Write the structure tokens for this entry.
Amino acid sequence: MTFESLGLSAPILKAVSEKGYTSPSPIQEKAIPVVLDRQDVLASAQTGTGKTAGFTLPILELLSRTKPQAKRAIRALILTPTRELAAQIQENVKEYSTYLDIRSTVIFGGVNQNPQVRTLRQGVDILIATPGRLLDLQAQGHVNLNKVEVLVLDEADRMLDMGFLRDIQKVIKVLPGYRQNLLFSATFSKEIKELAGGILKDPVAVEATPENTTVEVIQQRVILVDQQDKTKLITQLIADGNWRQVLIFTRTKHRANRLSEKLEKSGITSAAIHGNKSQGARTNALKGFKDGKIRVLVATDIAARGLDIPLLPHVVNFELPNIPEDYVHRIGRTGRAGASGEALSLVDIDEYEFLDGIQFLINESLPSEKIEGFEPNNRPGDNPPPTGGGGRKPRGGGGRPKAQGGKEDRRHSKPKRSGGGGPSNRNKSGGRPGGNSGGNKSGASSGGQRKKTSGKRW
Ligand code: AMP
């Protein structure tokens, strides 16, 4: 399959070839013809599948088929959960439209609105936005959405996680009723299905399946260790193993800061990214990490979501997420082309329930180990670690909220998205378009190994 055969015109093909893409990814192969056919799309795809070009290229193709009016109007609106993702999409749109007479811009909160308003006044065809800033500027009369032909909801699951449902609904109210809708999501909870049901008309389901691709293996490792020993242990593992590029996840912003500071003190260059960091700080941290100047990036789930972080040899769960799907997102960051990656989880006895929920979701048993000198000081009568997997229901509620403060922290203390049933419920309702239901999306095998697509995740 080639980009030419998908029906894209010469200026787009030229830009795509300059990006170095030789063939479309599976999600692009499936989504591009459907979007060009002006049908609604329900797509199951996460960052790394090439989904951005999957919706951007056909939108550019469609918009470029009509000459722009003297006064440009927003004809495509792309909603995304985070500023980073919005900025990345805009960068892609700009590159792909290099040889087209199409203007685009991005708006998001946390920065002065005036430059954004000035660009909007000059007229744009494509607007990429986070919901809050969009509604804000719309209420002030700086954004007119009544000519929108295509709406894209990117990372819809994360937008709902971040509490944007009402904002999305408000945006939809001010859009023309007759339009094309594309919804992209990595997971399909009951809420996402409801949202999709209310917005999409006879959608075509497309899915980024990793079939027929080279597979590599994510080695999943669980180390049982007391919470207070985790920092010392991870510092030792990074130093002894000479790990050069490590992404570490924590549940809270506070913990991300503290861990990053402690690593720095031990001589391991590190930066934390989370919702309280300024845009500039986040961008710098990510750049330093990609350039190899920063060895460890400590991130919360929300901050890491949507970032074009390269696939890494080491991803560490300093704390397990209490939303089991976040575990799948996190370990999806692991791997290098042609080589295996390691996803390491440091698990304290208080996190056994989370481990249980995760094993249930991925339908795998994750064998645990102890490291000499860091054995947990469990008291007699303490539960052994769960051995999970195999379709068995998790013990307890599948995860206990233990969070304080801040938006990212609060997210974790919310009731479970699929109605309090925990992972078992989610697993049942988590069907993905195209029929592949359940959380075990990438053909996980037993014994802590998980197959995935190599390189770009397709
Ligand atoms: P996305 O899933 O849209 O975030 O894309 C992930 C990465 O894959 C980005 O760095 C894209 O530039 C890159 N990419 C997208 N489509 C292709 C393609 N067809 N061939 C090679 N790389 C691609």
Observations:
- The radius of gyration is 22 Å.
